[in-house]
Write a structure and sequence with these properties.
Elements (H helix, E strand, L loop, with lengths): L4 H20 L4 E9 L5 H16 L7 E6 L13 E7 L2 H8 L2 H9 L8 E9 L1
Antiparallel strand pairs: 1-3, 1-4, 2-3
Helix pairs in contact: 2-4
Protein name: EthD domain-containing protein
InterPro entries: Dimeric_a/b-barrel (IPR011008), EthD_dom (IPR009799)
Organism: Cyclobacterium qasimii
Length: 130
């Protein structure tokens, strides 16, 4: 009877390599809350309220890994963008997002949105893979 040492050793080698790769290259999956603001009735009033009132309220949300704010300026063909602004709030896990957005600070930010978002708002959660 012959022992297939090469097959056995290849399986062990593959297993060791996979374990090493997963410890060396950590695939980090974060989550983000994306808030897309439609075009407001009065952009100047939106900007004033957003910067002077809403952002200070939202800045109290704990557990954020990163925050990005975007004001859309156009489309590649020079047209009007479909959305006015976007806010992206990054969290380490979905559980952290849920905890912080359910907190008094998170709820204060959510409840403030109707005070200035006259163009409507879409809120989504996404996984960020890097």
């Amino acid at each position: 009877m012959t022992c297939s040492w090469n097959v056995f050793s290849d399986e062990i080698l593959r297993s060791i390599i996979i374990k090493k790769i997963t410890t060396i290259i950590k695939i980090k999956i974060m989550v983000k809350l994306v808030v897309m603001y439609g075009h407001p009735v009065d952009p100047a009033a939106f900007e004033a309220y957003y910067s002077e009132t809403h952002l200070p309220i939202a800045s109290k949300i704990k557990g954020l890994s990163r925050v990005e704010f975007t004001k859309f300026v156009g489309t590649p063909d020079g047209g009007k963008p479909s959305q006015y602004r976007m806010a992206e709030l990054y969290f380490e896990t979905i559980e952290e997002l849920q905890k912080q957005m359910g907190s008094p600070e998170g709820q204060a930010a959510v409840n403030d949105i109707p005070h200035f978002a006259s163009g409507g708002v879409d809120v989504m959660i996404g996984e960020v893979q890097s």
